[in-house]
Write a structure and sequence with these properties.
The complex is a heterodimer of chains A (571) and B (163).
Chain A (H helix, E strand, L loop, with lengths): L1 E3 H11 L4 E4 L6 H8 L5 E4 L3 H13 L5 E5 L3 H15 L4 E7 L15 H5 L5 E4 L6 H13 L5 E7 H5 L1 E3 L20 H13 L3 E5 L1 H5 L3 H11 L3 E3 L24 H9 L2 E5 L5 H4 L2 H6 L3 E6 L13 E4 L2 H14 L7 H15 L15 H11 L5 E4 L3 H9 L8 E2 L10 H11 L5 E6 L10 H6 L5 E6 L4 H10 L15 H7 L3 E5 L2 H13 L5 E6 L9 E2 L8 E2 L6
Chain B lengths: L1 E9 L4 H11 L6 E6 L5 E9 L2 H13 L3 E6 L5 E12 L4 H11 L3 E5 L3 E8 L1 H10 L5 E6 L3 E4 L8
Antiparallel strand pairs in B: 1-3, 1-4, 2-3, 5-7, 5-8, 5-9, 6-7
The chains are: A alpha/beta (571), B alpha+beta (163).
Chain lengths: 571, 163
């Protein structure tokens, strides 16, 4: 069957089971949009800015485990999308981004809306392609999906010149799997290494399990829960890994790192065997690597990406493979070998120590009748939603409070930009989550600064009847910047005050949504209940919060993981 | 320590820029880099000479392997191997210098491949140290121009880097 390039793009998307494409049209993609007009396999969601298209596709993927798809035009369409692509890349989210390009003959001539898309995106994609011939188009699209979702996932961009979308060639539906001689990710872990890890774990007196986004991406939450149960070891989930182990589980120590709990950080430092799973010893997680390495402990590291292993911290037992696969093997070996005597007394002593650390109650905060405490809002959200909502956040203090106080019970419920730390993701993330999970409760925890970085998406929400509840923790400051300035820069609040804020209630009402302004603690819960009753409306809750609140505990940048400030009294 | 890393990769447009981009983005060092298609026109062979601690070299090879276009990576320095670099050097050759220059080229087993009244152009092949030694042996003012290919390397014996 002869098809033009645009129709081939549409066919390939349908072939991959794509149901939603987030995008924005423009000159170079007009043939593709024409093909979209004539099909009914997937729905296109018209965003208001290309950055939001990629963020929405990203959250769509994070919350559903499907590959997210975004479609943008050449030049500014692509450059606007770059922040979204880099955000997904840092958190290993599988996306396929299709970008239009000027016609082949015009490439390199500084044509209208031309940019070197492959060059600009190269450092922030898993891979990218420039399609030069329509005959390669279907194959390239299939490779893009395969690369995006396999191995360590990531965004893949396919750049398609306009003439390729109108040229014709024979199209045949996909048959069989994609094979590439240069790309074959390792899935199965090395048996010998897995056995070594099991021996180490069984002999451990002070074991600790530390898991990251890899457990979520690999859908290995069930395996992790079983492992924790079987070993009786304490477990911490990073910002990217929250929900892998239910926050209510007694083995769960909270999040580690810069704003992690006292008990998680202490256990990370003082364990004798650390099992790291799908985590990458990020600077925000382990602090100063030299300080971290001071304490002698054996480290087992399971990761699908060999380059993540021994990057910042030397490990003793590296295991390269898919987390789910490796954990299943590890569990089988653990069970088979459990006749070995286990140092039960030592483990009990370790837990005693951990409970002592836990007794510090590092997340306790002073409640107030006068001022709304941001932590209080997050806790109330948890109560009102039964701990069962999808929660997206932007970046800053509110992000940390959401991570610390929501208490996620399931994976893929907590959607945030962990690696790149992109302000402005919250609202488009909520859109993507809701498209992938219609009927689910979706909350976006944001701040008055972050929300303004993609506030135009209120219009998209209106068009597609999206109804997330937006919780704006409005402290009239770039809160995290202010916190650092208070602690490290002599309270000189350079450019961190958010002056000239809009009246958010009026603003969202002008888009046809519901707005509420809440400035008393007693009104927080009733407002949340009312908002979630309005199931099919976007409700924007502008919480006027305590301006001086800081995120605790805190490990200052460059410091050791156990050099924690637990509150302002430690300053 | 100096390492010679050989990379077999898809002969695709942009593949080289992925390698170069990786080195600059992650702050790795490139001393020399050479690349050309192999006997199989769909594959390119790239040799990069880099300097770094064992940890850095481990990261370099891991990151090279992570590139989708890269088929195979070998650190030649890990085993017995042969390195060669080619230099073309244009030198001043006037009067009694002419004979002297020819003798120097002979000593280093270079070949004079172009001649004018005032200059010789010499082709010299060898390990980097030999080429450097030749340059050091000449009077600096006699050197008019040099161009070096960078190191190419291959494993010794029956060891091959192939698909």
């Amino acid at each position: 069957m002869e098809l033009n390039g645009a129709d081939i793009v549409v066919r390939c998307l349908a072939e991959e089971g794509v149901e939603h494409v987030f995008g924005y049209p423009g000159g170079a993609v007009l043939y593709i949009y024409d093909a979209i007009f004539k099909q009914d396999k997937f729905k296109h969601i018209l965003v208001r800015h290309e950055q939001a298209a990629v963020h929405a596709a990203d959250a769509y993927s994070r919350s559903s485990d499907k590959v997210g798809v975004a479609l943008v035009t050449s030049g500014p369409g692509v450059t606007n999308a770059v922040t979204g692509i880099a955000t997904a890349y840092m958190d290993s989210i599988p996306l396929v981004i299709i970008s239009g390009q000027v016609p082949s003959h015009a490439i390199g001539e500084d044509a209208f809306q031309e940019c070197d898309t492959v060059g600009i995106t190269r450092p922030c994609v898993k891979h990218n392609f420039l399609v030069r011939d329509v005959k390669d188009l279907a194959d390239t699209m299939r490779k893009a999906f395969y690369i995006a979702r396999s191995g360590r996932p990531g965004p893949v961009l396919v750049d398609i010149p306009k003439d390729v979308t109108v040229a014709h060639c024979k199209y045949a539906p996909r048959r069989g799997d994609i094979r590439m001689r240069s790309y074959a990710p390792v899935v199965k872990g090395h048996q010998g290494q897995i056995k070594k890890a099991v021996q180490m774990l069984q002999a451990a007196e002070r074991p600790m399990i530390y898991t990251g986004g890899g457990v979520i991406l690999s859908n290995a939450s069930a395996e992790l829960r079983k492992l924790v149960e079987m070993t009786g070891a304490p477990c911490t989930n990073t910002l990217m890994g929250l929900g892998a182990l239910p926050a209510g589980d007694r083995h769960f120590l909270g999040m580690p790192g810069m704003h992690g709990t006292y008990e998680a950080n202490m256990a990370m430092q003082h364990c004798d065997v650390l099992l790291a799973i799908g985590a990458r010893f990020d600077d925000r997680v382990i602090g100063n690597p030299r300080h971290f390495a001071q304490h002698p402990r054996k480290i087992v590291h399971i990761d699908i990406d060999p380059s993540s292993i021994s990057k910042r911290v030397r490990v003793d037992v590296p295991i390269v493979g898919d987390v789910k696969d490796v954990l299943a093997e590890l569990l089988a070996h653990y069970e088979a070998a459990s006749a070995e005597p286990r140092p039960a007394a030592a483990l009990a002593k370790w837990w005693e120590q951990i409970e002592q650390w836990r007794g510090k109650q590092c997340l306790k905060f002073a409640e107030s009748d006068e001022l709304i405490k941001p932590q209080f809002v997050v806790r109330k959200l948890w109560e009102v939603t039964g701990g069962d909502a999808f929660v997206t956040s932007d970046v800053g203090q509110h992000q940390m409070w959401a991570a610390q106080y929501y208490g996620f019970a399931e994976p893929r419920r907590w959607i945030n930009s962990g690696g790149l730390g992109t302000m402005g993701v919250g609202l488009p993330y909520a859109m993507g989550v809701q498209m992938a999970n219609p009927g689910a409760q979706v909350a976006c925890i944001t701040g008055e600064a972050s929300i303004q970085m993609n506030i135009q998406e209120l219009s998209t929400c209106k068009q597609y009847h999206l109804s997330p509840k937006v919780l704006c923790l409005n402290n009239r400051f770039l809160g995290m910047v202010r916190q650092w300035q208070q602690i490290d820069y002599g309270s000189r609040y350079s450019e961190s005050y958010m002056d000239a804020l809009p009246d958010f209630v009026k603003l969202v009402e002008s888009y046809g949504h519901v707005g509420m302004r809440i400035d008393k603690p007693a009104d927080v819960e009733p407002a949340l209940r009312e908002a979630f009753k309005l199931k099919d409306r976007l409700v924007f809750l502008d919480f006027i919060t305590d301006q001086t609140e800081n995120v605790w505990p805190m490990v200052k940048a460059g410091r050791g993981l156990t050099e924690m400030l637990l509150g302002s009294e430690d300053l | 320590m100096k390492h010679v890393i050989s990379v077999l990769m898809e002969n695709e447009p942009g593949a080289l820029s992925r390698v170069v981009g990786l080195f600059s983005a992650r702050g790795f060092n490139i001393e020399t880099l050479t690349v050309a298609p192999t006997e199989d026109a769909t594959l390119s062979r790239l040799t990069v000479v880099t300097v770094g601690s064992d940890e850095v070299i481990e990261q370099i090879t891991k990151h090279l392997n992570r590139l989708i276009d890269v088929v195979k990576v070998v650190d030649l320095t890990e085993g017995a191997h042969i390195e060669r670099e080619l230099m073309l050097i244009k030198v001043r050759a006037v009067g009694k210098e002419r004979e002297e220059m020819k003798r120097m080229a002979d000593i280093f087993r270079g070949r004079i491949i172009d001649v004018t009244d005032k200059t010789y152009t010499i082709e010299l092949t060898g390990v980097q140290e030999k080429i450097q030694a030749f340059i050091d042996a000449l009077d600096r003012s006699a050197i008019l121009e040099t161009v070096r290919t960078g190191v190419s390397g291959i494993g010794r014996g029956e060891r091959v880097l192939k698909l």
